[in-house]
Amino acid sequence: xxxxxxxxxxxxxxxxxxxxxxxxxxxxxxxxxxxxxxxxxxxxxxxxxxxxxxxxxxxxxxxxxxxxxxxxxxxxxxxxxxxxxxxxxxxxxxxxxxxxxxxxxxxxxxxxxxxxxxxxxxxxxxxxxxxxxxxxxxxxxxxxxxxxxxxxxxxxxxxxxxxxxxxxxxxxxxxxxxxxxxxxxxxxxxxxxxxxxxxxxxxxxxxxxxxxxxxxxxxxxxxxxxxxxxxxxxxxxxxxxxxxxxxxx
Length: 249
Fold this sequence. Notes:
By secondary structure, the protein is of the alpha/beta class.
């Protein structure tokens, strides 16, 4: 029996996939959530199982409440009650000024980046909280350095959604602090993943790296290390914190 079970949303690629592999390395059972790329999710699961770990891939768009509920119910039935949640699923959009943003774009951004994190955290609390008979646990939300920088001329909406995650993290942490649950966030800076291409800026890493004091982009694994620390008992007295992984930017 694995002592710890973690659900990672958006775990088929990038930071989510790196976190899944790292958690498995530390003997956590991992639920790899994905929206559409089943091949990528299955490959993460394959890598985990190849080293003797326990993992399963579960398709669900966590921006849709019914699918998020199905995701948690599937994990309950096939792995057991989770003790860790990583709210990693999120989207960016094409570069745009605020005066050109549509309500459709904003709705997609808020629903995927904010509402889904609330819904998944809600379901995690129901399973982890001592108030509901749980044994406690840890929630790690993915924010972004954009929450501090604003991302003018590119995606102020994304930056605002991540600022909401910062506030959400601090509030929820205080709300469940006496129920055995710790809630923290990781705020990555420029990380070398394909999310930049999906947001229409495939060269963003090379363009922004010179602005970083360390003069390079970070890796998904470096962010995963911070996430896992916050998930684990090594951070047992840490809650309501936001950890920057930004190379000093």
